[in-house]
């Protein structure tokens, strides 16, 4: 991998990691469901006008959008609005990796290797440690909500696993067409028209400027710029070469939240988060001495892209090229390939 492209991969990880404090800023003005509706509306409008729809069953596209867009970000934004620190959110969202492995094993009959079982078990135990620690020092509900967001991400990943040979950027933009209406309905029912009207009516006031900038960052930088670069890298190099860079996202998310909001990382949560990342990396390696394969490790890219995205951070089956498929057939492995989402992202994702 050329030095220039390695630097670009690091830039993407930084961009997606900064997506978490940007989301926290946006949530200071916009309620969570309305923020998600606005985010995806700003992506959906140019997509409908200028981007060709991927050639895949529309029902599958709806399922991908529902998992990656509606479930993931409804719960993630609600978690952060309920008090989940943005840095911790970037760590807990890594639960999408073991969730993806387990769901793919159940619904897609993906065979789990002994290494994947060990890695998933380690990651789940570390996440349980974070939940127990939070229950003793702060509210547990935000952690549970973030885990539900990670589960939604995993559901979208499994649906994306069968997306077929489509353009990954087009797929990501088109599943972003799904969330605006459900999110707007949720905002109307749960947050109420009065709160929606106040947030929108004061969106262009000086006090709302940080939130506006956070929203623009999520849409323009984390989603479009970040995912655009990531897609080019996936089209140039094997996914096993690119995917490990996504594990920098929670590191950047924690450090950025520390600098921006003074969220001093709790030692127990940082260590447990490192164990989660280590477990995911362990599960994603096909054999000792080989580079990380395009497996659950890639799921981390969702948080920052979409959320995100974020967006959090993910990769799609569309980015899983024919060379990788041939290699999997030769070695007898068929790793779970999570989706790249803008967010959170997705991720983000």
Structural class: mainly alpha
What is the number of helical segments per DSSP (H or I, 4+ residues)?
16
Q: What's the order of the H and E elements?
A: HHHHHHHHHHHHHHHEH
Helix content: 55-70%
Please tell me what the overall shape is: globular
Rg estimate, integer Å: 18 Å
Return residue spans where pLDDT drops below 50 for at least 5 consecutive residues. Answer: 288-349
Report how far the terminal alpha carbons are from each other: 23 Å
Largest sheet: none
Q: Output mean pLDDT.
A: 77
Strand content is under 5%
Count of β-strands? 1
Account of the protein in words:
The protein starts with a helix and ends in an 18-residue tail after the last helix. The chain is globular and about 55 Å long. The chain has helices spanning 3-17, 19-27, 32-50, 58-81, 86-92, 96-107, 114-137, 141-160, 168-175, 180-191, 193-201, 209-236, 239-242, 249-261, 267-284, 322-331, and one strand at residues 301-313. Helix content is 66%, strand content 4%. By secondary structure, the chain is mainly α. The protein has 16 helices and 1 strand.
Task: Explain the layout of strands and helices.
Blueprint: H1 3-17, H2 19-27, H3 32-50, H4 58-81, H5 86-92, H6 96-107, H7 114-137, H8 141-160, H9 168-175, H10 180-191, H11 193-201, H12 209-236, H13 239-242, H14 249-261, H15 267-284, E1 301-313, H16 322-331
Helix pairs in contact: 1-12, 1-14, 2-5, 2-12, 3-4, 3-10, 3-12, 4-8, 5-14, 6-7, 6-8, 7-15, 10-11
Quick gist of this model?
The protein is 66% helix and 4% strand. The chain contains 16 helices and one strand.
